[in-house]
Design brief:
Pfam families: DUF772 (PF05598). The protein has 8 helices and no strands.
């Protein structure tokens, strides 16, 4: 029996070869979040700046990239990893307490439309780079894992 190897449609091998901090650096550099950051910073006005908005945002991105299941898991990692703190912008600051994250997340929910526009702009950039992106797709369905029981 001949087995024909097939490439995975959702392959992360190129990114898996990068270190964790390199993957986070890519996200921080290429995510078009400037409008959101300026909006949040203008809303803060002259409020306390113990934990800069950009630094807290970057730590949340780190939590997503490193697949932390909870804020406390992310905070433990930040306390342990000085390079991560530095990359996120917390060089001189201590790790934000949990209440900073809960308040920040509430503010993010108020700006859901802006966050959606960030991702739409990334997709638009992908369409510019790959003009045929999304036009057609054909694959062997055996490569997509399925959990259906089937019709009885």
């Amino acid at each position: 029996m001949a087995i024909i190897p097939q490439m995975s449609l959702f392959s992360w091998t190129d990114l898996d070869e990068l270190g964790d901090l390199d993957r986070l650096r890519l996200v921080i550099e290429y995510l078009p979040d400037e409008k959101l950051m300026k909006t949040l910073e203008s809303q803060r006005k002259n409020g306390r700046n113990d934990y800069p908005i950009r630094a807290v945002w970057n730590t949340i991105l780190a939590g997503v990239v490193f697949e932390h299941k909870s804020t406390e898991s992310l905070r433990r990692e930040l306390k342990r990893n000085a390079q991560l703190r530095y990359m996120c912008g917390l060089e001189g600051s201590s790790v934000p307490p949990a209440y900073v994250y809960s308040r920040f997340m509430k503010k993010l929910f108020d700006h859901e439309e802006t966050i959606n526009l960030m991702f739409e702009s990334l997709v638009a950039e992908l369409y510019e780079t790959l003009p045929d992106f999304g036009r057609s797709l054909a694959i062997d369905s055996k490569t997509i894992p399925s959990f259906a029981n089937g019709k009885k």
